[in-house]
What does this fold into?
Amino acid sequence: MINRKVIKYQKYKTNRSFLSKLYVILNDNTYNDIIHWNNEGSKIIIINITRLCDVVLRKFYKHNNYSSFVRQLNIYGFHRSQGIIKDGVCFEHEYFNKKTTKEQINQIIMKDKKKKIFIGLF
Amino acid sequence: MINRKVIKYQKYKTNRSFLSKLYVILNDNTYNDIIHWNNEGSKIIIINITRLCDVVLRKFYKHNNYSSFVRQLNIYGFHRSQGIIKDGVCFEHEYFNKKTTKEQINQIIMKDKKKKIFIGLF
DNA sequence: GGTTCTAGAACC
DNA sequence: GGTTCTAGAACC
It folds into this structure.
């Protein structure tokens, strides 16, 4: 009974994590003109920073600060990358792409807070 | 004769400095829907980051990286600030406002490169 | 002196 | 675990 609660809680948490939300955003065509996968599904392209802040960040992350979004990308191990010319800002991650499963996403850990995670619930 | 050359060179340089360009941008109505002074002329409001990158940064700073722009603001001593609600990103500087003269702008020095400036031409 | 990308650190 | 603002450091 306790285990079931823990699992439920973990699922609840992970669906609301930075990466899970990012995955939802990227696979929602609604935001295709703001942020999307590159053709190969290997990189993230931010087309419109202004609308990313006003629409996407406000809705999913409850803020509208582009710098905070980039900080989170870095904390989770994303790197700036080169997209197609005239495209927007491009980021990529070794283990985060269009084919990554939800389970795999939940296995990606933060860069500078590893300790806290290992002594935490998991 | 040498002095005149030096003065000419300094004028040439300062007109192309980060702050001088920023002052030009802020006082050009062309970019009013992208970046402008607040009503009091005391703070900088960035309305549209996307167009700031695509139009203003490309033209004046030969790049289109918002993070680089913010880095420069910090190096010159600007601080994030609060604008009117629903406004964009807001920055302010103790000595940089709408009434600042070109001469005063040229007296503002960089934060972490002070040494280099003091052993330089001036 | 400017550009780029990422990290520090305090706060929540 | 996320948010915020600013700084480090390497490169140009």
Residues 70-71, 74-75, 79-80, 111-112 of chain A lie near DNA strand C (CB under 10 Å from a C1'). Chain A has a mean pLDDT of 86.
